[in-house]
Amino acid sequence: MKTNFFKIALRYLWRKKTYSILNLFGLTFGLTCAIIASLHILNTLNFDKFHKNFDRLYAVESYVPYFDGNRFPKEKLSASLNDALKEKVPEIEEMTRITHLNCTFLFNDKSFTESGIYADNNFFDLFTFPLLKGNSGNMLTDVQTILISERMAKKFFENDDCIGKTLTLKDGDKQEAFKIAGVLRDVPAQSSFQFDYIIPFSKFLADNSWANESGASSNQIWVLLKKNADKKFVDNKIKNLIKNQESNLNQELFLFPLKDKILYYYIGGRKVWKEMQYLVIVGSLAFAILLIACFNFINLAIALNIKRYREAGIKKVVGSSRSGIIFQFLRETFLITLISFFSAILITKLLLTGFNTAFNNNIHFSFSDVNVVLVFTVITLFTGLISGLLPSLYLASSNPLNVIKGKIVTSHSYSSFRQGLIVFQFVIPIVLIICMMVIKTQDKRIRNYDFGVDKEKVIVLDNSLNIKKHAESVKTELLSIPGIDAVSYTSCIPTRGTRSTNDVSWDGKEATEKMQFWCVDTDFDYNKTVKIKMIKGRFFDKSFSSDSSCYLINDMAARLIKNEKPIGASFSVDGKNGTIIGVFSDFYAVDLSGAIVPTIMQIKPNDVNTLLIKFSSGTYPEIAGKISKVFKNYEPELPFQPKLFRHFADSSELNASSRLIGVAFIIALLMACLGLFGLASFTAESRTKEIGIRKANGATTLRVIQLLLTNYSKWLIIAFFIALPFAYLLGHTFLRRFHFHSSFPYWTLFVGPIIAYIIALSTVGWQSWRAASKNPVEALRYE
Questions:
Q1: Per-residue DSSP letters for 717-782?
Q2: In sequence order, what are the residues at sequence separation of 6 or more whose Cβ sits closer than 8 angstroms to the Cβ of residue 502?
Q3: Domain interval for residue 562
Q4: pLDDT per residue over 549-601, tens digit each?
Q5: Looking at per-residue confidence, does 750 or 402 come out higher?
Q6: Average pLDDT in the 36-62 region?
Q7: So what's the pLDDT on residue 4?
Q8: Dihedrals φ, ψ of 109, to 5°?
Q9: 334 inside domain
Q10: φ and ψ at 362, to 5 degrees?
């Protein structure tokens, strides 16, 4: 029986090669999208799950009041908070402190800059990072010891047999030797923590005494709650711990679960989607494309089943049951689905490398993973059932009496439903192309916005200890390079963020007011590299010696301190008293997605981490090469990594989102057109005799083409009108995320559908032309 089924199925698929290939292609691409999306979702959801205490690990963070009333989490806290938590919260089983750092290490003639962490000696009691060599119990007790990863060991020593050897850490002119006490297995890609070495936290405290000050932002604190401990109870217990320690620190502590770190961030106690929004987008796009593939299959299968109606009727006459016919067609569908699934697996393996590169991902799969097998099984079963159930019910509805009488159904049954499927297939790509255009418009708006920096003429360079020590000499040498007009040391690259503080005072400030301000630490030449729009007063001037202790504030800060005439008013930041000498506006210190924040500028060149270099002539590679020579004179060991300001705009997350939706649009439209092409082929074939009669009675080829395209145009127009409100709603919601955004580009509501319309009609136009241009004599002989 099974052999007979396979014979019938394969014979039918071979006889209908064109439609079989279309169905195979459609399901293969739909399944490929679903597989890649499911792998991405699984990869993200599996982050950090390798830790044995995954469900009980929490970061201790604090809410910082924002200028508009919202509260945002602050990850780094004071190192001294550890003792208070141990004393006040017995529900905590273990806790450890972590601080991230980047350092240059030397060994013989090798020099590499690596990322690592400082961590307490109980780090491995909380986190599960397996050791390759060494004993985790005592390796973080000596301040001059270090643990390195297997990758780092092979980079420096070419093998992992390096216990007891010494690496030299270089920090400016200072060099320290660290003895290797252990080798870690490489940190998994699915880890929130990425590091290649661990240095004892006691070493960090020895070198940074300020870390124990109340309110310091020095380190992360991670806790392991006892089994059955109530998170909400602990949250209430630690909420006012900082306020009770230091009344002027208006911050509230809370626990941030490790399992939420990748997916969410918190605003004022509310979960807000972070990576979760991309999971929803990717999952929705893949599901929509898979549905298009299934609907293509349904449409073609029902159309073809009209010709199998006699077969089903005769089977009923000779004793086949309705369920038998249903299961026969479902088995045929699952056969095609399985062939498509294995083809999709092969295509996925070929595409994964390119996908990971394009979207900065690291997904992979193995059939030894139970979750992967389960997800693949669900996808295959879903595809087979959705694709095959309705056509099998249609086929099983044949009436054996009508078959015996020779009454074969030739009309397109389920016509309204099938036309509805075609409409739905085109609604998706139309919505996608409009959304892609809206995102591109916003992305272009952000890239081209003039926030005071010539993107093609400003070079960004990381500062270093030796550069700081010789700041003026470096600046003089750089300015002597032909083409370079200005050099500025600063803590703020516009739109890329800067430090914040609530230790701000002014005349008339009430004791209960706790406002957050963003500080731009810079020098006297910042306005030469970044255009600052002064609306009151003036910028800093070297000719005024007192300017070193003065401040500039933006108009938002002036409104917050409720001072209509701030020039000359007393002002204090972090305990440093001064005077306001100017007010500026339209300066984005943080980013372009949010509102302009209250910002303070001050002359503080010793606390800066960036050089901004503006040039007016010469090319970027030429100028960068000359800057490199100056840099290497002072920092011969550190890598020289300049960046044109344009590169920061090019790394916009909107670029990745628009590319993702653009790829989804192309795939969805191709899938929809593939189904439309198959249906057009069948329609043209089934109407061959009608076309021949029309042409024999004087109809022109153009008139016949118009006749065939009328139905397709009707479906597409309906799809356009259904898609437009959805596209507008999604686009409008997206733009509202940005405080600084373009107005809704209404032209996309016309251009997007027109592009989809032209591509769709081009797909069926060729097939219609072939049918319409046939010799009417051949057409009449067809049947």
A1: HHHHHHHHHHHHHHHHHHHHT-SS-PPP-TTHHHHHHHHHHHHHHHHHHHHHHHHHTS-HHHHHH-
A2: 64, 65, 249, 250, 514, 515, 516, 517
A3: 458-650
A4: 899 999 989 988 888 888 999 999 888 899 999 999 988 887 776 778 899 99
A5: 750
A6: 92
A7: 59
A8: -100, 10
A9: yes
A10: -145, 55
507 & 643 share domain: yes
Q: What does pTM read for this prediction? A: 0.79
Residue finishing a domain among 650, 679, 707: 650
Question: What's the CA gap between 181 and 163, in Å, rounded?
Answer: 6
Among 238, 261, 284, identify where a domain stops.
261
Whether residue 280 sits in one domain with residue 236:
no
Check: CB of residue 594 under 8 Å from CB of residue 736: no
Each residue's pLDDT tens digit, 654-681: 767 777 788 888 888 888 887 777 667 6
Statement to judge: residues 595 and 638 lie in one domain:
yes
Q: Is residue 61 part of a domain?
A: yes
How large is the average pLDDT for residues 314-328?
Answer: 72
Tell me the backbone φ, ψ of residue 202, rounded to 5 degrees: -60, -30
How far apart, in Å, are the Cα atoms of 426 and each of 718, 724, 771? 9, 12, 24
pLDDT band for position 1 (cuts 50, 70, 90): very low
Same domain, 404 and 314: yes
Percent of the chain with pLDDT over 90: 30
Instruction: Report the distance separating Cα 329 and Cα 649, nearest Å.
Output: 54
Q: How many domains does the chain have?
A: 3
**Are residues 496 and 624 located together in one domain of the fold?**
yes
226 and 279 belong to one structural domain: no
Paired tokens of 393 = 């019910």
User: What is the Cβ-side half-sphere exposure of residue 671, based on CA atoms within 13 angstroms?
Assistant: 36
Q: Is residue 708 part of a domain?
A: no
Higher pLDDT, 410 or 624: 624
210 with 315, same domain: the answer is no
CA–CA separation, 672 and 669 (whole Å): 5
How many C-beta neighbours within 10 Å does residue 373 have? 13
3-state secondary structure string across 200-259: EHHHHHHHCHHHHCCCCCCEEEEEEECCCCCHHHHHHHHCCHHHHHCCCCCCEEEEEEHH
139 and 254 in a single domain? The answer is: yes
